[in-house]
Amino acid sequence: MKNKIPFRFALLAPTLTVALAPVVWAQNAPSPSADSALPTATANADATVGFDKKAAAEAFDFGRTSIAALQEFALQRHPALQLVADLTDAERGVYVQAGLAPNPTLRYGGEEIGADGSAGKHGVSVEQEFGGAARRRLAQEASRKATVALDWERQVVATKIRNDVRAAAYRLLIAQKRVEFRQQIASVSQAAEDQARSLIAAGSLSQLNFIQLQNQTREAKLAVTKAKNAKTSAQNALLILLGAPNGTIEAILDDPEELGGEPLDENATLDDILERSPEIERLKAQIVQRQAVLNYERAPKREFSVEGGVSYAFGDSTTLASAGVGVPLRINDRNQGNIQRATAEYFAAQRELERTQLKLRAEFAETFAVYKSAREEVQTYREEIMPSLEKFFGMSQQAFLSGEIDFLEVSQARVVYIESSVNYLEALERLAESIVKLEGALLERCLED
């Protein structure tokens, strides 16, 4: 009996062909993603990440460069952009998976084994689910909309990177100007001290005034050291944003003194931000994606299953065929929970857009006020205050050494010159940061969540 089993199972071949027909149909059925432009997601275990430890450890020498070149460098290697790319690849995998038809189920069954000394009855059956192609297309559409939102997220991140690099570069340039200013003060103080030595020898300057000049020189040198440390900190911050913390920058060719040319129009600038902001476009794309999810959840489920099989009874040498159709009864689970969730998320996405539009208006009002104030300050200091103070400070030093004024007067002139220079550079920094924000759709801080 055991030797005859393989031969007798051969009798099942014609019926198995009929039973396996649903499997063949499912494998050869047209994919609902055939008309989609989305590429197929493929796993690549050897893929090189755009920002890695080895690359970050490289000591890039940027030499004499421009802000535009630094921005382009950051866009090629920033981990925030790579993160969005990875999330997009993940969503493409969701898209592919959503379009796959369900697998058929192959079952084996045996019964009456050993009855009357026979091998019993053995059979196989195949079950395949049908009717879900429409919902699969809706699921793929929702996933495709998600990739559109991620494309806008990439634009948001890229804009933040460009803005952060530009702002950090201007901070470094202004830090360099602080160093130059402090070095100028130290040089003038040192020259005054050197000249005072000869005045002491001639008896035309008191020892007390000379000691005070020496202390001013020491303070000026300490201020140079402090300014250099601030410059180093600004350079390190920029290099970190570039993804090259071990790099070096010889000089940035852009000049912050060129900022503040033609004034920005308040209404036109606000309208431009609200119209072209990638953050707004991302939120609009998310609303469309939420609508697609809601359409998917609301779509009626019309899936049904078809089963076909054959069995062979060894006792009486008979072959039997079976067929069945299963239709789920939507009595308890009508997908009402998922519909409620998708509906709430759709309206939440709309509220988020409204909230962000109000947030941008509030940020714009604050930033534009800073811009107007800083621009007026910079122009006043640049065109009126600093030229006269530089001349006044130099004249006061000479008047003191010639005995025309006392130490208190020259010291006051020095303090005024230093304070005005510091105020000018601070206003220039505020102007640079506000212009970067206004021209960059108010997006910043790419390293934050």
Describe this structure in words.
The strands form two sheets. The protein has a four-stranded antiparallel β-sheet with strand order 2-3-5-6, covered by helices on one side. The protein has a two-stranded parallel sheet with strand order 1-4. The chain has helices at residues 5-9, 13-19, 21-28, 53-57, 67-77, 79-98, 133-202, 207-242, 266-276, 278-298, 336-401, 407-439, and strands spanning 64-65, 105-111, 121-130, 251-252, 304-313, 318-326. It is elongated, with a radius of gyration of 38 Å. It has a domain at 69-107 and 130-276 and 348-439: Outer membrane efflux proteins (OEP). Residues 1-51 have low confidence and may be disordered. The chain is built from twelve helices and six strands. The two termini are 72 Å apart. With 449 residues, the chain is α+β, with helices and mostly antiparallel strands. Strand 5 (304-313) and strand 6 form a beta hairpin. Helix 7 (133-202) runs antiparallel to helix 10 and helix 7 runs antiparallel to helix 12 (407-439).
Summarize the structure in short:
This protein has twelve helices and six strands.
Reading off the top of the CATH hierarchy, the class of the domain at 69-107 and 130-276 and 348-439 is best stated as Mainly Alpha
Number of helices: 12
Rg, nearest Å: 38 Å
In N-to-C order, the SSE pattern is HHHHEHHEEHHEHHEEHH
Low-confidence stretches: 1-51
Strand share of the residues?
5-15%
At the fold tier of CATH, the topology name of the domain at 69-107 and 130-276 and 348-439 is Outer membrane efflux proteins (OEP)
Strand order of the largest sheet: 2-3-5-6
Structural class: alpha+beta
Mean pLDDT: 83
The end-to-end span amounts to 72 Å
Characterize the overall form.
elongated
Query: How many β-strand runs?
Result: 6
Question: Would you identify the CATH architecture of the domain at 69-107 and 130-276 and 348-439?
Answer: Up-down Bundle
The biggest sheet, with number of strands, parallel, antiparallel or mixed sense and barrel status, is: 4 strands, antiparallel
Q: What proportion of the residues is helical, as a percent range?
A: 55-70%
CATH superfamily of the domain at 69-107 and 130-276 and 348-439: Outer membrane efflux proteins (OEP)
